[in-house]
Amino acid sequence: MGLDFTVVVPTYNGATRLPLVLERLRSQVTPEPLTWEILVVDNNSTDNTAAIVQAYQTHWDYPFPLRYCFAAKQGLASARQRGIEEAQGEFVAFLDDDNFPAPNWIANAHAFGQDHPQAGAFSGQIHGEFEVPPPEQFKRIQAFLAIRHPGGASRQFEPGQLRLPPGAGLVVRQQAWYQNVPKQLRLRGRRQRSLVAGEDYEALLHLHKAGWEIWYCPTMHLSHQIPRQRLERGYLLTLARSTGLATCQLRLVTAAPWQIPIICIRTILGNLRRIALHLIRYRGQFSTNLIAAFELQFFLGSVLSPFYVVKNRLS
Asked: Which pLDDT score is estimated for 311?
């Protein structure tokens, strides 16, 4: 280490998006003693992402470095892990290439981390900026798209209830992550051969298991760009199912071995009940009510999630 703060920006084919993030980052207002850096992690891009970063580096005239590294293994979890390994800051922040931080985001994040020494990770307010208007009642599912702004008071998250912040905009203590989060998570994120999401939560649950607190910081604001395709029915229903499929695996991260069958049975029975109640309430509406259809797919993924646990442990 040696610096106070590192902003890790994982990107895949982000040549058109990355400049906008870099512009926001070099406009950050930070107190003079704070030392920080930007680290772009190129997650096996096939476009000119590397050339874009190199062009910025050539004309970079700022006191905080702009660094680049390449992560050949595809997947956001792998890119973030590479960022942790390369980061030189005490605190490491993850910004996706469609996240735009407010000008005081780094300063407020660093101050919060110093004021909360037991916080292994923390996150702030994430506001959606939509290319097209979201569907009716979208607020019921907006957290699944990493949009969260739960108010002006700081508080701890509830890992035991799987109430945790997303990876976008997350800040972690580099040493806490490095010592407690496995380099290879069981949940690797949505990739070509995997439909199961949840890698963000899995990493945080390992921190929680080690005794670290997970906090919400209301003074950290960033905007999350939501393009049209992420509000389309096909994308949303796939997101719901893949997130649900991670439910049981996440509940097992902090469980004792003897609790595994109990958690699996409770996950199945609890979600069968939710499915039954949902079908009764929204019968005949799933083709027209996208939010109800989303929730149903999440419950279906959750009821199947114990079988994915078995499959993972046998493979």
From this structure: 64
Residue 194, class by beta-carbon neighbours within 10 Å (0-12 exposed, 13-18 middle, 19+ buried)?
A: middle
Neighbours of 208 (CB within 10 A): 22
User: Looking at the predicted structure, is the pLDDT value of residue 194 above 50?
Assistant: no
* Residue range 109-164, pLDDT digits in tens: 999 999 999 999 999 999 999 999 999 999 999 999 999 998 999 999 999 999 99
Do the bridges between strand 119-130 and strand 99-101 make them parallel or antiparallel, or are there none, so unpaired? Answer: unpaired
User: What is the per-residue burial (b if ≥16 Cβ within 10 Å, else e) of 62-88?
Assistant: eebebbbeebeebbbbbbbbbbbebbb
First to last CA, the chain: 37
Torsional sign, CA 113, 114, 119, 120: positive
- pTM, full prediction: 0.93
Q: Tokens in use for 88? A: 């030189």
**Contact indicator for 201, 168 with CB cutoff of 8 Å:** no
Give the position of tokens 């992402």. 49
80: confidence class by pLDDT, cuts 50, 70, 90: very high
What is the predicted pLDDT for the residue at 313? Answer: 61
Q: Do residues 221 and 109 lie in contact, with contact meaning Cβ atoms separated by under 8 Å?
A: no
Cα–Cα distances in Å, from 310 out to 197, 216, 304, 313? 16, 33, 11, 5
